[in-house]
Amino acid sequence: MHSLLKGRSFPGKILITRRADPVDQPNLYSPNTARKLSDDYIENGDNMDAPLEDDFRNRNSTNASSSVTQTKSSSSSGESTSNEIHKSSMGARSTDSARLTKFTKELSGSSVILDKLRELAWSGVPPYLRPTVWRLLLGYAPCSSDRREGVLRRKRLEYLDYVTQYYDIPDRERTDEEVNMLRQIAVDCPRTVPNVTFFQQAEVQKSLERILYTWAIRHPASGYVQGINDLATPFLIVFLSEYLEGSVDSWSISDLSSEKISNVEADCYWCLSKLLDGMQDHYTFAQPGIQRLVFKLKELVRRIDEPISRHIEDQGLEFLQFAFRWFNCLLIREVHIAQSLLKT
Hints:
By secondary structure, this protein is mainly alpha-helical. The protein has 14 helices and no strands. It has helices spanning 2-5, 31-66, 81-89, 97-107, 114-121, 130-137, 145-167, 176-188, 202-218, 228-240, 258-277, 288-304, 306-314, 319-328. α12 packs across α13 (306-314). The longest helix is centred in the first third of the chain and has 36 residues, at 31-66. The protein starts with a helix and ends in a 16-residue tail after the last helix. It holds the Pfam family RabGAP-TBC. Residues 23-97 are annotated as: Disordered.
């Protein structure tokens, strides 16, 4: 978040007030309380998300009927950036032409300047450029166009090796902890966006399971924590959009070859890893990263909108009780995919 806000200016004014009295750390911020909230989140996740996910499905269907039909292409490592840019321009509205031209210029060079690309992406990325831009901004794909094809091919093969080594083995070769973790992931995958038909496909859940289990084994400090499954969904949708047409509800992953599915999984795995590398303490014991962010949010509200802060206190609420899930899933469960913060 720090890197996203750096150098930004925002319209309007913000009034900041200071309190003379010191701020006490709430006793809710303890390892046991954080673990209790995490457990409650797992038990109640489905009920809490039902209205949101109904709305997501309805909006997704509406958006699909009005979306412009565009030609999809595979993003095999041999496809050139210029072809991707050309396809992204097809059917674009005239009001988007200036921004598309800027993206075209930035992505067509021999080496992408990330600061400039990040500046462009701040206002949103055209859908068919999103996979390319995300790979670059997350540091998964190199800036040099000459190296990009080889690096992606190597990283995708590396992911396949991880799956063979850690996932495609019998349970008798796993530790008890690994067996339990795999079972928990298998339980959580069907809960991921439960009211969207696409995510209920067995093949999709299996892909998500492979991604999450492989990541958890490779990151033993945190392992798998419920909520990480939600963070993987935007990556899965964006990278599948290179191969599948129409609305998400109409997609069928069984239409894809095993090679394309493997490429999508690999891209999801590496981009999820890059995202979580900067926030892994959100998912270690007691989740100190989330507690720290919730405390900062409380301080921000106290300084900017003291009446709201006072009202929350008068109601006997603690920020950790309602903001925990916001930071645990980066608001992915609160905002439907079409408006997700990760879509910029």
